[in-house]
């Protein structure tokens, strides 16, 4: 079982850098669907991801159809959108025979509407107050979702850090 965060045409280097950092810390595979709104050499992208780029497994896809064709039959794909009916916390992510993919849309427009309509049963949302904001920050949204996935999976291969040396598990 592998978890994957997929960014559809991300525009802001800081968001992508922060998500890459989260992926490095959670052993999550990052997929970037082009076109990107920045160069991967962008100084803001590097600053947000700091020195974690070499610790993140990143796959680039030329477009959405190419990404979709890379999925295997047993893979589970979820689309994250504020327009979905089902909450991300209601879904189950514990089948050890599946890889889980979570696709997040472009910061300004989200995922393409026809794609969303064709995959409505795979859409999940993060509850929010729409009266106060248009949308949650992309990097925060990715972290919220991946940590719920990992919580359900028992935080596999993640270490627990203890405040004092004597408290470390042997």
From TrEMBL:
E.C. code: 2.1.1.207
A GO molecular-function descriptor: tRNA (cytidine(34)-2'-O)-methyltransferase activity
GO process terms (BP): wobble position ribose methylation
Domain of life where this protein originates: Bacteria
One GO CC term on file: cytoplasm
SUPFAM superfamilies: alpha/beta knot
Enzyme class: transferase
Compartment list: Cytoplasm
UniProt: S-adenosyl-L-methionine binding residues: 80, 105, 126
Principal location listed in the UniProt entry: cytoplasm
Catalytic activity field: 5-carboxymethylaminomethyluridine(34) in tRNA(Leu) + S-adenosyl-L-methionine = 5-carboxymethylaminomethyl-2'-O-methyluridine(34) in tRNA(Leu) + S-adenosyl-L-homocysteine + H(+); cytidine(34) in tRNA + S-adenosyl-L-methionine = 2'-O-methylcytidine(34) in tRNA + S-adenosyl-L-homocysteine + H(+)
One Pfam family matching this protein: SpoU_methylase
Keywords: Cytoplasm, Methyltransferase, S-adenosyl-L-methionine, Transferase, tRNA processing
UniProt xrefs under InterPro entries: Alpha/beta_knot_MTases (IPR029028), SpoU_MeTrfase (IPR001537), TrmL (IPR016914), tRNA_m1G_MTases_N (IPR029026)
Annotated tRNA/rRNA methyltransferase SpoU type domain residues: 4-147
Family designation: Belongs to the class IV-like SAM-binding methyltransferase superfamily. RNA methyltransferase TrmH family. TrmL subfamily.
UniProt cross-references to PANTHER family, sorted A to Z: TRNA (CYTIDINE(34)-2'-O)-METHYLTRANSFERASE (PTHR42971:SF1)
Functional description taken from the UniProt entry: Could methylate the ribose at the nucleotide 34 wobble position in tRNA.
Protein's UniProt name: Putative tRNA (cytidine(34)-2'-O)-methyltransferase
Species for this entry: Liquorilactobacillus oeni DSM 19972
